Amino acid sequence: MTFLEQIIARLERTASQPVLAEVRDGSQIVAVTGAELLSRVQQARAFIRARGVRPGDRCAIYAPNSIRWVALDLALMSEGIIVVPLDPRQVPGEISAVLRDSAPSLACCADAAFAANVAATENFAPPVVLFDQIFAAEPPGAAAPPPVHHADHDAVTIVYTSGTSGESKGVVLTARNITFMLGCTNARLDKLMGARQEPERVFQYAPFCFAAARVLLLTSLSRNSLLTLSTDLTKLSEELKLAAPHYFVNVPLFLERVRRKVEESIRARGKFAAAVYARALRAYLARCGGDRGPAFVDSLALRLANSMMFPAIRKSIGPHLKALICGSAPLAPETQHFFMMLGIPVLQVYGLTETTAICTMDDPAHPVPGRVGPAIPGIEMRLGENDEILVRGPNVFPGYWQRPAETAKALAGGWFHTGDQGEVDAAGNWRITGRLKNLIVLNSGHNVAPEPLEHALAARIPDAQHVVLVGNQRSFLGALVAAPAAAAGNGASGSSSPSPAQIQTALDALNAGLPHYKKIRAFCIVHEPFTIENGLLTTMGKLKRDAIAARFAGEIETLYRKKSA
Asked: How many CB atoms lie within 10 A of CB 555?
């Protein structure tokens, strides 16, 4: 059976059981059963057929996550139509580029506001229909025909990469890619959750335009679970309390914010609580280090924190959490240790859109902080030139949409060239060390991967929002230190801006253990926050380095001019 046939069969088996829900207004959960979801799928299939959209055509979905989004997605795939999910948070110009490239026969939009962005597309504007139109009619009386049986090589979706620079490319994913991946994710979740009769509760806040979010959606629909969708990112805390999930997928930025908020609340409770926490953390890290045990006082603080402090923190984050799953970028080991100390495992995954979102997954029984787990069974990974990670397996995409030259380059030699640098330990656990295109080449000829140094410096400056290294074709490395939002005056956080003295102290400590060419010799504090809205972060929270360099070109020039004077 294909992944889609498996999902339809599961929905038929759970006709009276809630399978999908969404949070509304941050205060109530609205759920649909398997039968109700299938009924909406039938509505959408009938509408699509009536519009004359044919198998093999492309159809765009431009809307935030919702039950109707899912029903439409299943309907389009059931009709053999290639789904092009659009990012609801992208600016109109980026949406226009995707529409021109994919040339869909139809664009299905949440409401008139989204439709207006599609209508503004230059050179190509597909016909637009609103969700209200699609789901207005009564479900057809006759039983729906079975879904199209996809052959392994049939394209199912085109997912556009977010891209940290340049125009996004359309990644074609096939039925084989997705069917294989759902087998892998189900096996790993079975290991996490164990044997259980009750449905597991899953929460989802990342938009379905991302491959990892789509894989989680389809995995949840194929197994005994209730998936609850976030509908308002500003109310995530309230939504999480309502959903009470056993696990959910995160980006590092979200987990870093949770950690920072918890640590700020501990400091606000007074010196005693802060001292107990600091000693407990030191004891936990000493135990993980394995060289020697923690001091007696630190061990006592850890026992005290485990009995009186950490249970309340766990409850505030999620009382039923079995694990937090994290992907899209490497997670700082300090943050992974933080959650593990609280008793909440963080399981990292690594992959790209081109690998159907996943290559590696942490073993739930043996997560290694700072690493992203071993390659999942059936997937080969090795290191190529410049320690580039190469991948081969049923998860690897067949190519980019209408870009044969770039496809040939990415799949040269029968391996997918990820562009990521990494290393693997004796146990087969991978670590991502950098991105080839992000390498800083100093005028001395030294190549420096910025990510490890950025993470290390950021860990020493808790009040910094982001740290970005600069120095391409310069004589030394410099750093842009972005102050938190509160420092810019919007009051979004209780953090204060790091002072120049604090940053210099952190730099001195970091530089002490680095070779000369990796030392960060100057810095500049910038008070504009890095956000998706101002174009300095991708929608998955990754740095847009070219945009940052352009935005702060004057500050960078001043940084080097002052240091050289």
From this structure: 14
